[in-house]
Sequence to fold (264 residues):
Amino acid sequence: MNETVNNNQPIYSVLAHVYDTLMDDVDYEMWGDYIDDIIQTHAPDARDILELACGTGSVAIYLDELGYYSLTATDLSPAMIEKAKSKAEESDSEVRFQTLDFLNIDLKEKFDLVYLVFDSINYLHTEEEILKLHEEVSRVLKPGGYFIFDFTTPRNSRQAIRYLHNEEGLSPDNYRFFRTSRFDGVNNIHINEFEVEKLNEDQTSVQERFVEVHEQKIYTFRQMMDMIDKTGFKIIETYDGFNFKKANNKSLRITVVSQWQKTQ
Fold:
């Protein structure tokens, strides 16, 4: 059978088929516990929670299992949301999943807290987009609401390139992927290229091949802080990695806890 090659797919379209396999080594419970710890530390009364760029929903589903949050989880990719809904059904989760662009948060509800993890903010390549995101988040926060997000730094990209390069795997529904990763240190762009192959049932031939290219803008600690200072959010704390130590210029991943200050 002759295979079909589809280049430059929208991000997280075909990749949705292999995303959970790709992220198999991620400890979602640890990540969920960390977000929960931050919420309990800074906003213990928060109940109505919005997740942006939720992927296939693992963190939201885990937080829902804690029993004291009302969760809405969103993602730009319809394919990722379909995967998330299937996982929610299997686990009897009450998370409300829907497709949504976080640069156009078209929701009528107001939330106590919004979070955005897995360095999804790094997909925004300009200051204008970072400011737009904060504007959109502010519109759906209750007065004094919180915004939690993480981002990765150039130091992280330089280290990650060593183990992300030439990664491959096979999903349960016969999608095989190959990832190549490189970091443009001049422009601070981290590029992940995924080649995804749809195999036949006995995995002996390739029926279709897809290519997705992901480019993330990698910001320094100072660059991100300077941009947040231009929003109506007050930085409450910045954490290093997955602990409660203060972030610094050597941090690989930084979690920002900010609070909306302006009157809505």
